[in-house]
Amino acid sequence: MARSLRSHTKKRTRALKREQIFKPVEDARLARLAQAQADAAKKPSVGDFMEEEKEVAASSTADADAMTEEEPKKKISTSGPRSNRHARKLKEKKKKGKKSAIKF
Q1: 44 closest CA partner among 56, 55, 53
Q2: Considering the domain boundaries, does residue 98 fall inside one?
Q3: pTM
């Protein structure tokens, strides 16, 4: 007969795999992530970078404003054209007209 997952041998095999196979892989992954986190902590944060960009951008916005005032922005349609099939069906529906409900 087959052994169930609760049998002593199956439990022992899973415990050995956990200790000998999966644990070293997990430890190596944890070390890699810890190293990556330490490297990321040394880099400047996103907020600091954004503040520097604002200072640089403040001086260049005066030039950019002069250029944008001359050229108005063109509106872009976000609704795409309807398919020809849809338009054809609408025409056919209009052409048929309304039928009366009562027939003799």
Answers
A1: 53
A2: no
A3: 0.40
For the chain, residues with pLDDT lower than 70 are 1, 46-71, 77, 80-82, 98-104
10 within 8 A of 3, measured Cβ to Cβ:
yes
Q: What is the DSSP-derived secondary structure letter of residue 5?
A: T
Token pair for 73: 């922005």
- By residue range, what is the domain housing residue 26? 8-40
- The Cα–Cα gap between 86 and 93 comes to 11
Length of the chain: 104
Number of domains forming the structure of the chain = 1
Q: Which tokens hold the place of 88?
A: 């054809």
